Amino acid sequence: MKKIIVALMAITVLLVSTGLAAAKKCDCTTIQSGELLTTDGRVITTGYDKWGYNYQGHMFNGYYCDAYRDAAWCQPYKDVKLAMKWNDAWLSNKDCTGDGLLDRYYGYNSHIGSGAWLTNHQSGEYEADGEICKWNYFVKIVAAPADAYVESGNWYTADGTEIGVVIWGSFATVQVVSNDPCAGENGNQYVSPFTPGFGRY
User: Fold this and answer.
1) Given Cys at both, which of 90, 104, 124, 166 links 86, Cβ 3.0 to 4.6 Å?
2) Which range marks the domain in which residue 99 is found?
3) Using CA atoms, how far apart are residues 39 and 78, in angstroms rounded to an integer?
């Protein structure tokens, strides 16, 4: 269950969008201006909003369903705790393009080569054979470098070193950590042979 949640949560950050009450074509509009709006019409402010998003700080802290504004379909996962962090290339805290949205991969044609990254840290518990099992899960996702290539479902550097599994086309999973005693999982489940660090992407 938690692995499905990982994929869905990262998509949330990719797809979350904001509106702009009055955009100026050549100026960057910031959250501090009080003009940026969420998709449900709320003014974005600095700090955490009612759902757990802190757009200024590039982070989310809350529960799974909070990230989807308590949508009906996510209720089976409502007790899963979630923390996300991302950088400016993944989702900015301002609009410099004048399109009325928080910028993504500003200055690039796509996320590829932009250095964008996202982390997800989740935790929860479930019952199995009368036992309460507590688990936590952490994943790092990065945008592929501009000179990388895909082969057999993995991204590789230009010199042929594996970066990580392809996810959403432009991204690679570079580290997965899972701790779940009931499932026999402990520690790193995957570490990129190239590097799990963000600095080289």
Assistant:
1) 90
2) 2-191
3) 21
Mind giving me the DSSP string for 171-191?
Answer: EEEEEEEEEBGGGTB-SEEEE
Tell me the chain's radius of gyration from C-alpha atoms: 18
Q: Is 70 part of a structural domain of the chain?
A: yes
pLDDT in tens, 177-191: 999 999 999 999 999
Q: What's the domain count of the chain?
A: 1
Residue 139 burial class via C-beta count within 10 angstroms: exposed 0-12, middle 13-18, buried 19 and up: buried
For tokens 């709006």, name the residue: 37
Q: Terminal CA-to-CA distance of the chain, rounded, Å?
A: 29
The average pLDDT across 114-129 equals 96
Beta strand ranges found along the chain (DSSP E): 18-20, 29-30, 36-38, 53-54, 59-63, 81-86, 94-95, 117-128, 131-143, 149-151, 154-156, 162-167, 171-179, 188-191
* C-alpha separations of 11 from 3, 146, 198, 200 in Å: 13, 21, 19, 23
- What pTM, to 2 d.p., does this model score? 0.83
- Residue 146: strand, helix, or coil: coil
Per the domain annotation, does 10 fall within a domain?
yes
Looking at per-residue pLDDT, the higher value among 70 and 14 belongs to 70
- Please tell me the distance from the alpha carbon of residue 142 to that of residue 146, in angstroms, as a whole number: 12
